[in-house]
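Researcher: Quick test of sequence recovery. Tokens follow.
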């Protein structure tokens, strides 16, 4: 899952980035309002965390611009502005959640999980495909109740496939989902992760099919 953090307090930002990366998120960081607006307009994020007191452009202005462009990315406002009027204004301008500083990282992460769950999996707390069960909160995969070992990258790959159940996912989409702005990932590397996921799922009747020139689709394999 790819998250944008718009926060100009570098100490706070570093703490959040570290915690989110540890939980398996890909995180991009914007330190000013215009940067945040730019990144939001050219990348599909699963969630954005938006500070309001940002240099050059207030977070509320960023929020307004993003929603004016019909961008529906879930946005959580993270701010020291804690009056009732501030909260109401933020939510009315299109924020999905509002958390005031100081806050606990645990709560921020729980709120992010809830936003992402709502965006991709409606209200489901687990996703089932054939004998596989995926828990999007804990990012764990189970086959017939037994945990299946996947690396963090492999889990990212599977997560994206499940978010697009029944649809073909392009390689470009995998790259966008799997890496942030400062990283690079080749299509070859994506293929390596895909083939590892395929190898792990195939014995359990799940097929990861390549559709030439288009992308990949995860399905229950037809009965032999
Ligand atoms: Ca600030």
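Model:
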């Amino acid at each position: 899952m790819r998250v944008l953090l718009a926060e100009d307090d570098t100490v706070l930002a570093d703490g959040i980035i570290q915690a989110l990366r540890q939980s398996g998120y890909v995180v991009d960081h914007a330190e000013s309002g215009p940067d945040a607006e730019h990144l939001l307009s050219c990348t599909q994020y699963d969630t954005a965390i938006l500070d309001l007191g940002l240099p050059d452009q207030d977070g509320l202005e960023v929020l307004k611009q993003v929603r004016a462009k019909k961008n529906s990315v879930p946005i959580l406002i993270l701010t020291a502005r804690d009056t009732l009027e501030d909260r109401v204004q933020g939510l009315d301008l299109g924020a999905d959640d509002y958390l005031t500083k100081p806050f606990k990282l645990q709560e921020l992460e729980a709120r992010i999980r809830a936003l992402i769950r709502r965006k991709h999996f409606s209200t489901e707390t687990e996703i089932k495909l054939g004998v596989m069960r995926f828990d999007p909160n804990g990012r764990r995969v189970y086959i017939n109740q037994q945990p299946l070992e996947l690396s963090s990258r492999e889990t990212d790959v599977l997560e994206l496939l499940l978010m697009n159940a029944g649809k073909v996912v392009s390689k470009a989409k995998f790259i966008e989902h799997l890496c942030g702005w400062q990283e690079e990932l080749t299509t070859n590397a994506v293929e390596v992760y895909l083939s590892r996921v395929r190898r792990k799922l195939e014995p359990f009747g799940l097929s990861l099919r390549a559709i030439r020139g288009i992308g990949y689709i995860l399905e229950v394999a037809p009965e032999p």
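The pocket of calcium ion is lined by residues 8-9, 51, 53-54 (CB under 6 Å).
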